[in-house]
Description:
- The chain has about 190 residues and is of the alpha/beta class.
- It is about 40% helix and about 30% strand.
- The chain has five helices and five strands.
- It has helices at about 1-15, 40-50, 55-65, 85-100, 110-125, and strands at about 70-80, 105, 140-155, 160-170, 175-190.
- Helix 2 crosses helix 4 (about 85-100).
- The chain starts with a helix and ends with a strand.
Amino acid sequence: MKRLTLILTAVVLMTSCSRTVTRVSPDQQIDLSGRWNDTDSKLVAEEMIRDVLSRAWISDFKSKNDDRPVVIVGMIANKSSEHIEAETFIKDVEREFINSGTVRVVQNSVFREKLREERAQQGDFASVETQAKWGKELGADFMMFGVITSVTDAYKKEKVVNYKVNLELASIESSEKVWIGDKEIKKFIKN
């Protein structure tokens, strides 16, 4: 009898601790905790890039230069009350810029250094015909930077979190700000 009880207890523990994993589409919106998530990042990036690309700075640039502007997505700081992976948001912004075909995007300073290291190594180890050339990098015309903030209001088991993303685009040559945009996402969470 004792043995049967132990076996049944073990079976109950094993089945109560089991985990189910289901593959879902990356586009499916799933909000488990109410925190900033991948859907928020994609939606904000899409809307803000749509806005920045519809403003006068881009037509002004094209009429003066007869070419697409080159943009760097620089630092976007997370000053919200929770951990947000800013790098994911930066990649969403870069993807939207590149996929628009309206601007050209170059690597930020960290990745440019990595590319220069690789180019230097090619000078030592690659055949002359296949080496990447020095002095062929695109110089950026504009840099985008910004900040993610949040304000939280909570009472008992209810909480409202208002996320705000502020982005700015500035001319690297003149430092002139040519666009400022913001996007808010407000979430009501009830436990």
